[in-house]
Amino acid sequence: MTGQTRIQRRNRETILTAALAVFSQYGFRGATLDQIAKQAGLSKPNLLYYFPSKESIHVELLEGLLDTWLDPLREMNAGGEPVEEILAYVRRKLDLSRDYPQESRLFANEILQGAPRIAENLSTELKELVDEKAVVISGWADAGRIARVDPHHLIFSIWAMTQHYADFDVQVRAVLGPGHDPFAEAEQFLNTMFTKLLRPV
User: Fold this and answer.
1) What is the pLDDT of residues 101-130, one digit of tens each?
2) Annotated DNA-binding ranges (predicted)?
3) Domain chopping of the chain, boundaries
4) Rounded to whole angstroms, how far apart are CA atoms 75 and 72?
5) Chain mean position to CA 64
6) CA angle, corner 175, sides to 185 and 190, nearest 5?
7) pLDDT digits (tens, 9 = 90+) for 46-97
8) Distance (Å, whole) CA 185 – CA 108
9) CB atoms within 10 A of CB 100
10) 133 near 76, Cβ under 8 Å?
11) Which of these, 33, 76, 98, 159, has the minimum number of CB atoms within 10 Å of its CB?
């Protein structure tokens, strides 16, 4: 939306921030415009001035989030040292889980519902990037620079082992108990695990 005033831009951001909190807690189906308006401190008619529907808010959040989610993989450098590049990707994904837990849960909820609003993005933008990096990883393996691994499943495992700390934060902290830093401990563990996995035989 172009030509917005400063107040209009601020209100849109307030609505999106409020919607993120509501969607990440209740999911798309459980969230209501009334909840989002209350969280934003705006009236429902005021909210509808900026966004015509709950779905329009949800789609805008997801489209912005997908870019954020893909950036760490985009940064994987084909010319770098392979193990270091993969471990750096693991660290960037952990950082996302630590710094953007609500966004992670929003994305997870969308996927669990069958990705009705971003299915096309998954089969185009996401798939193209993952396929591109899978070629890089396979090239490293072909050159004997890392162990031979299935590159797609390597990426899937990184997603699973990093996003878990955002999506299941309450469970992780309940099991570890007080006095633990889940993300620092996870980084140390994952670095060790992936280093051993990727070490050339």
Assistant:
1) 988 888 888 888 898 888 888 999 999 999
2) 32-51
3) 1-52, 61-198
4) 5
5) 11
6) 25
7) 999 999 999 999 999 988 888 888 999 999 999 999 999 999 999 999 999 9
8) 23
9) 18
10) yes
11) 159
What CATH number labels 61-198?
1.10.357.10
Please spell the DSSP secondary structure of the chain, one letter per residue: --S--HHHHHHHHHHHHHHHHHHHHHHHHH--HHHHHHHHTS-HHHHHHH-SSHHHHHHHHHHHHHHHHHHHHHT--TTS-HHHHHHHHHHHHHHHHHH-HHHHHHHHHHHHTT-TTTHHHIIIIIHHHHHHHHHHHHHHHHTTSS----HHHHHHHHHHHHHHHHHTHHHHHHHH-TT--HHHHHHHHHHHHHHHHHS--
Average pLDDT, the chain: 93
**Paired tokens of 183:** 């993300």
What architecture is the 1-52 domain classified under in CATH? Orthogonal Bundle (1.10)
169, 102 contact by CB (below 8 A): no
CA 31 to chain centre: 20
CA distances from residue 55 to 6, 41, 160 in whole angstroms, order as listed: 24, 20, 27
